[in-house]
Amino acid sequence: MQLDFIDNLNEHGENLVRLYDFGMVESIKFQNALKEFVAGDEETFDISTLDFIEERNCKLIMAISDTDLGIVTRDKELFYCALTFKGFKELIEAIEPYTKREVSGYKMLYDIDSLTDFLFSPRGSW
Length: 126
Prior knowledge:
By secondary structure, the protein is α/β, with parallel strands linked by helices. The chain has one domain: Gyrase A, domain 2. 25% of the residues lie in helices and 32% in strands. The chain has 2 helices and 9 strands. It has a 5-stranded mixed beta sheet with strand order 4-1-2-9-8, with no helix packed on it. It has a 4-stranded mixed beta sheet with strand order 3-5-7-6. Strand 6 (70-73) and strand 7 form a beta hairpin. Helix 1 runs antiparallel to helix 2 (85-100). The longest helix has 16 residues, at 24-39. The two termini are 16 Å apart.
């Protein structure tokens, strides 16, 4: 599973953080790691600590927040995915189909009005 950032997708300045190049096994591992994070006491979780994720050009920290902000950054290298507990529950549910069988389609992991989308795509496309 690889992690990267793609800047300036369109004339509106939108961009995305993308998890790609994975199969069902990695999806299960990622979903389980998120479940453990949400159930635990920590307020942040650096997904690069997972041995199956390779960072390409960015770092992503998951963070429990009072509001669903989505992915935010100041420098386009270090990103925070700031979601409420409910937001994380919805994100975990969005991954569910990828844990049941090999899926080739992509999914945006949240529906928040922000400049940075969160793409979950086994093949990397959208």
